């Protein structure tokens, strides 16, 4: 096989990475995180959530229908979190991955199991559909 031969006069010792290189690597990783976060916030300009409604409701679960319109000229894949509230209590939530074709409106049906059963006098006050960053 192939072997790399060391020069005869050099001792075998490990070389350390210089501090300026470490500093540059740390700065590059921080810059990459900031750019990624900025790009994700800019994607929200191209997406619009519409027609949020409850398809079916029972004491243990609910099915929520909503549409997401992609106004961009490119494919977008985002995580979407759907939450149901009764007053200030969160009844349940579910996260899905939405694959959105360019210039297209896509409908989704999400089944959410409640943390506690709904009583007869309780209703769903708020439905929250947001993009998870």
Structural class: alpha+beta
Distance between the termini: 49 Å
Indicate the CATH topology of one domain: Immunoglobulin-like
- Rounded to an integer in angstroms, the radius of gyration calculated over CA atoms is 25 Å
Strands in their spatial order, largest beta sheet: 1-2-5
Binned strand content? over 45%
CATH architecture label of one domain: Sandwich
Mean pLDDT level: 88
What share of residues is helical?
Answer: 10-25%
CATH class of one domain: Mainly Beta
Uncertain stretches of 5 or more adjacent residues:
none
CATH homologous superfamily assignment of one domain: Immunoglobulins
Major beta sheet summary = 3 strands, antiparallel
Describe the structure.
- The structure is a single chain.
- β3 (76-86) and β4 form a beta hairpin.
- The model has no long low-confidence stretch (mean pLDDT 88).
- The longest helix is centred in the N-terminal third of the chain and has 25 residues, at 19-43.
- With 133 residues, the protein is an alpha+beta fold.
- It is elongated and about 85 Å long.
- Helix content is 19%, strand content 46%.
- The strands form two sheets. Strands 1-2-5 form a three-stranded antiparallel beta sheet, with no helix packed on it.
């Amino acid at each position: 096989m192939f072997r790399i031969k060391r020069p005869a006069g050099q001792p075998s010792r490990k070389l350390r990475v210089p501090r300026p290189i470490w500093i540059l690597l740390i700065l590059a990783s921080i810059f990459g995180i900031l750019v990624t976060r900025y790009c994700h916030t800019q994607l929200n300009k191209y997406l619009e959530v519409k027609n949020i409604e409850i398809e079916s409701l029972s004491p243990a679960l609910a099915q929520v229908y909503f549409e997401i319109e992609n106004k961009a000229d490119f494919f977008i894949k985002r995580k979407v979190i759907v939450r149901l509230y009764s007053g200030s209590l969160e009844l349940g939530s579910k996260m899905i991955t939405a694959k959105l074709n360019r210039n297209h409106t896509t409908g989704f049906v999400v089944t959410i199991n409640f943390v506690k059963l709904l009583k007869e006098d309780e209703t769903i006050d708020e439905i929250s559909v947001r993009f998870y960053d």
